[in-house]
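I'll show one example:
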Amino acid sequence: MSDRYPIPAGEHRAQQEISRSRFIATIAPAATVEDAQAFIARMRAEFPDATHNCWAFVVGPPGSTGRVGMSDDGEPHGTAGRPMLTVLLHSGVGDVAAVVTRYYGGTKLGTGGLVRAYGGAVQHALESMPRAERVEWIDCVLTIGYGDVTVVQQLIAGHEGRVAEESYAADVTYRVTLPDARRDAFAAAVLDATRGQALVD
């Protein structure tokens, strides 16, 4: 399971009109099921007069089905939440929740039309949605000799790390924050560059 993947950069909204019904798709980042539920509640509060507020969410890496949810919110069973969830699962985006708000315009779409409308509304919003990257960060503490400072600073930068704290005494100590995915390669590179003299915690 990757600890780095695309997520929504923030809340994003797109609207479509289909057979006089207005479909408003709002997408938001959701790192936990509680985040998703809070977002859904917020959308219901924002659009209390809507005919339906259907929703779906995927918590975790893109395509993972361990923590998902969906609701048709009164639309015929399987015509809203399921197609929305399917689009989210195939979007290549993780930690994502979507609410599609519908204002009924007087023309029935039928089950196939509803599936296309709800899935399409999410797809339409995803196409214009700004993305960010979820990265799992860790801290590690390095103790090195003064002669190794320059090479170790280059290694920190090369592994997307940043020095959070530093102290200079008999040895040099750095507390470094870096992506978890780079932890092992970084530790190996530091030990190699310092001929095994560094302490990496």
